[in-house]
Amino acid sequence: MREEVSEIEGLAEGFLAMLANERGASEHTVRAYAREVRSFAAYLGETLGKDAQVRAVEHLHIRAYLGVLYERGLTKASAARALAAVRSWFKWLAKEGKVAQNPALLVGTPKLPKHLPRVPSVEEVNRVLNSLDGEGAGKKEGAEAAAWPERDRVIFEMLYGCGIRNSELVGLNMGSVKWRDDAVLVRGKGRKERLVPLGDEAAVALRAYLPLREAKLVAAGKGALVHEGPLVLNLRMRGDCRLTTRSVGRIVKAIALSRGLAADVHPHTLRHAFGTHMLEEGADLRAIQEMLGHERLSTTQRYTQLTVGQVQKVYDETHPRAK
Fold this sequence. Notes:
This protein is mostly helical. It has 13 helices and 3 strands. The protein has helices at 7-21, 27-48, 59-71, 76-95, 122-131, 149-161, 166-170, 200-219, 245-258, 267-280, 285-292, 297-303, 308-318, and strands spanning 177-178, 183-187, 193-197. The chain has a 3-stranded antiparallel β-sheet with strand order 1-2-3. It starts with 6 loop residues before the first helix and ends in a 5-residue tail after the last helix.
């Protein structure tokens, strides 16, 4: 006999269904929220009982749940993610009239240490990109990062030159490249689209890669994908031939290590570098925000970083009272 679903569990599933179908959230976001919301719903069932109403949930229950997460060994960052999911759930519940107000708003977000990612210098990134004119990463690094240097250069040029996310890169199709506009149409978080400038070097890399892409598709009997299919292909032409984010991560790390960059370099590092290097060269923060596809300027400010010396230089050169 099927166990009856409690009100709280049912409302949790209703929220997750809305998130997946109506908001157009990414699969990663839906998975993360599902994990956090179901875990909290299960905790409420254990502490308040299966027959508890969602209106009975108070901020003290949420605060106690965070305490349980800490007892389980979760970090402040993990607890903050859990709280963000619970806040979104209760915001939806309030909007639907299931609760009078959002109790999660009364729970403070755990203070997180501010870790700025180490960003490779302009010279370091240029050295890697210039080295890709010859060959990909070493053979020992695996087939995906060894046998197609033209594609690997496109990966680096698009991640660093356009500042796009790993998921946005693998989601690009042939029609995403707007040659007349020197731009790329990117579908970001929440399926929001934005046009990102396509730099000269990225365009050169693409033009060198596309004939090889076409030849591989034709040889694999998948000529129908030449003009319509994914932009960045996997090496063995499997499935729809689209490269995965995991493979992109392996390729970036393998090439970075083989070129002397830090071991913690990954696709997001190149996105950080894009924003940081543009800011260093004097780009407007709001323009960088637009290109990165950030909803809030504060997110862009965290993404970019200026040294004390750079801040002092800007002040000395621009403030009327500094001269």
